[in-house]
């Protein structure tokens, strides 16, 4: 895999674009802090971009399956680069409206880019390399997040906000250039066939329905999202409970590093465990890590909870991505990953709102119990169904 130039292009591109992304995110927060006093209006502005990305999802999936993945990635990457210009205009004119235009355009371009990227990965590596590739790819994204936020903090002191967005624009432009050098072998006849029939989500759902393991994995991704959706709110709450600002840094660092270790470890685990076993085991452990937050007043136990969560998610997500890439037919990858992207965004926002509401109403400790019980219930329910379906298959084979 490491001799494959496409792998290096995708990983370097992900790292560079990730730095640009997090520079932009920190820049967005800084700009809104200066221009938008209301926290509610801040959330409305951010939601506008998210809504645009979700609404364009069906079209993005259809286009990704009809056109070459490289073409979609190039156009979406170029659009993301251009979107930064609107943010520069917003800074120069002190206009929040131009910032909304920037957020809408960057979210729309992301709605096209990420499904195309997920659909391209199985086309540039072999099936037995997918798990390793997904793990490394997610590690690179995590590393770019850690470095991106750190660099953004330094840049805010060293340079103007406009210059920080210029650096972000340069990073996105580098991604476009790198994408030109990717070689993706796609079946032209397959593309022609797809374009002749309805290629929206309506044609995707019957396929997914015939693949219960895919449906199960989709629903089980709710387990880590219950933690991830309100991650920042939970960290802030723990900081308030412990009356310590330093604990936030420790939690973010511990979770990020443990995630990277998990994503590297999962390849080794896969030699002795099936993907489905890995999925159930770490989904269960994620539920336990949520329950562990009941003891959030203890710095040691709080960090252990996040280390456990980070490692488990590092094993869970590459495995889930591999199941999707191998079980869903390749001609449906664009639509499927677009649908999954939409679903993740909707769940993420719902969990974010639910977390904020529950923290206000019942507090962190009670919420940890609720979320932990829900996660364990989902895991145990689907594990039981999976065991029953496997047992019935074995009985049918013996009967035959």
TrEMBL record:
Species this chain originates from: Guptibacillus hwajinpoensis
First-listed, main subcellular location of the protein, grouped into a coarse class: membrane
Membrane topology, record value: Multi-pass membrane protein
Intracellular or extracellular location(s): Cell membrane
Transmembrane segments: 7-28, 40-60, 136-157, 163-184, 211-238, 250-266, 278-296, 302-321, 365-383
Protein name from the UniProt record: MFS family permease
Residues of the Major facilitator superfamily (MFS) profile domain: 6-390
Keywords, alphabetical: Cell membrane, Membrane, Transmembrane, Transmembrane helix, Transport
Signal peptide as annotated in the record: none
Taxonomy of the source species: Bacteria, Bacillati, Bacillota, Bacilli, Bacillales
